[in-house]
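Intended use. Records such as the Redox-sensing transcriptional repressor Rex entry shown here are meant for training and evaluating sequence-to-structure methods. They are not intended to support clinical decisions.
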Amino acid sequence: MGEEKIPQATAKRLPLYYRHLNTLYQQGKQRISSKELSEAVKVDSATIRKDFSYFGELGRKGYGYDIQHLIQFFRNILDQHEVSKVALVGVGNLGTALLHYNFMKNDNTQIEIAFDSNADKVGKEIAGIPIYHIDDLEKEINRTGINLAILTVPAHVSQQVAETLVEAGVQGILNFTPSRLDVPDDVRVHHIDLSIELQSLIYLLKN
């Protein structure tokens, strides 16, 4: 079954499985059952088996899964042998924090370049990442061939910036702004609203 048929919920869980299996492999463990993996990643074993079923026969009954085989498999699926380069647009408080963090726990995703309109920031570097003027966004995205972007701009310019990103060839946007973005169907947007995440967490704690 082709990768494009994988449900989004499954795709979101793959990096979780991959990270955990890597840790186990480094600890010298060679195989794991769906029940053990379930307890470790807090996903029920039926869901894990369903997720894995999209990729054919990965394990066998009574033996479980060969960890090294799974890791190699997920590495190919997730393109973990290649570094995904990311652009960050909006070097405010959150953008600056993300530049300093820069996915240090994951060598396969790297913010390469940042954009802002603030003259005090343009031309400087934060954590080794160069900051360009937002007017140069299309030119620099084209030059670097980056197709992923993190959006941490003020809400009132988010749609306009998203359109420029799409025109420059960006295919995936991680949107930290409260705005819902209107983009073509072939561009993926993941919305991250910290206040909504917190409110849902509070609700779960209370109930």
